[in-house]
Design goal:
single chain, 583 residues, alpha/beta, six-stranded parallel sheet, 19 strands, globular, binds pyridoxal-5'-phosphate
Length: 583
Amino acid sequence: MSGQPTTDNNLIEDVAEFYAAIDRASLTHKLSAERPYVYTTMEIYDVNNGIRGAGGLGVLAADTRRVAEDLEIPFVMLTPFYREERHQTMNDFVPQDNYTPRKPTDFGFQKVGDVPVKIADKPEAMLEIYEKICGSTRFLTISEDNFGVLYGGDSSEDNRLYQMVALGFGGYQALKMRGLKPAVMQLNETATTFSAVARLDELCRNGMGIYEAIVYVRKHTLYTNHTLVMAAEPVYTYEQFEKYVFPNIVSPAVKHFISGLFRDARLRLNNLTIELAEAKNCVSRLHAKVINFTDLSGERVDFKAITNGIDFNTWLMPEIMDFYHDKGILDKFNMPGENFREILKSLVASDLRGFKKLGRAKLNKELETRKNQYGKIVQIPEGALLYEFKRRFVSYKRPWMPFEHPDEFRSILFENDAHYIMSGMMAGNVGAGDTTYDRLQVMLHNIDSEPYLRERVHYITDYDESLSAAMSAGSDVSINVPEVGWEACGTSFMKDIGDLTMLISTNDGGVADIEPPPVLEVRGENYQEEIASLYTQMRLAAEIWRDDQKWTEEITRQLAAYLPIMSGARMMRDYLRYLFKTN
Ligand SMILES: *Cc1c(COP(=O)(O)O)cnc(C)c1O
């Protein structure tokens, strides 16, 4: 049938070559169209395919699929298709949420059937399964009119549990309906754990003993964790499980097993996930080192570090990608070429400056379709120094840090004739009194009260993928200052380094994969010292930016250090090596 993923027999040569390159040629026998790599996630950020996420977790999922498609890996993305998509505008410096309706059929999805999901004392809900095939990968999405929005309400509320149950049990039925048997199921966070439960139930229903079935499921499940604080994991009551989860389980042994994991009539989802996944990973080295999750017996759980990568084709300027390929900085798998470090060393400013000029034009084009905090369109002059901050507005990322001493900040901009641009989604559904909203409002009022800052500092609303890519392309200096120990990985900084933007960063998340981080590091014993350090690095960045040789050194030093880490193909290689250890 046309449009079907490639089967074992006609996997093109390149895949075998990729597998061979990662020393696991036998993978071509372990993964096939009927036995794919299954990735399951509540969130994916893939606007081209009609699904808008909220942040890094969704971006990672979308990039993982795109890299799999690029490498022709048989791959299935199991995820909800949300019927409503959140957008933000601004009113008196307070973000306002608006929702736009979305239909899978508008994005090339086809309906392939319905599957039921059961809720105690309610009629069965029917989930519609929509499929879309993209090369060797496919989306299988679940969807229904009353499904709700992404991250609506509190994480321990009924509707969130319903969404997880629908994705897990419904998604697993969808796999069966399409004749697919997962070679591995990657659970992107614990919210997806019910697909592993559904598999366990299927095995027991077919006559396997519960312990044997658990061993089997454990061997074929990977739990990817992005959370640093165990207390932030969702907790559900026994009552909620009786209503939403147990009606979807046939095997009494599986119900009994899960019941045994409750403590004080409550179950933390990660406790269930840890039981069902032998392979477990965190998304950067530091994250795997500091994570302190325990299982039910109180033992600390080991997580392997597999640092997130990005899909270069999505995030880097196509002109820069051509250059990296022509020069041999990237190979055909988008992994660093053999001599990439020497090649980077040989580059001069005139090889690279043109890309930033082009990037600025791209940014301005994107900004023509955008509004700032005053509802106005902004343009950044060609040739002007541009600082940027683009990430979700959550406390630990500290978007307000550059504004802590407005006079100092102002003088940095003034002395360098510089501009500052920022964007980032605010968490949804936060009521009045939310401190992040308050702090954003205060920050924007402070900017407004200073005539120079009002002209030079732009907050662009409705942050999304295309704005993110344009900001990486068109900015000169990117500011990434999470409170150390709080960023699981972060991928924005990778987009910046790839697009030749200088990075100012604290030593956290994926940046800390290299010790000491070869970037303009912000450090200090306390917050005040960190602020001072940030200003010092902002001044230094301006100085470097003006000097061709220093700038080239800085840009290529970042690339030489982080290119292997940033590579999405490298991330995929690491997952495949981890999951299919035996030959
Ligand atoms: C890249 C990207 C992210 C990821 O941001 P980090 O905070 O660096 O993990 C989030 N949202 C959008 C729209 C992005 O493009």
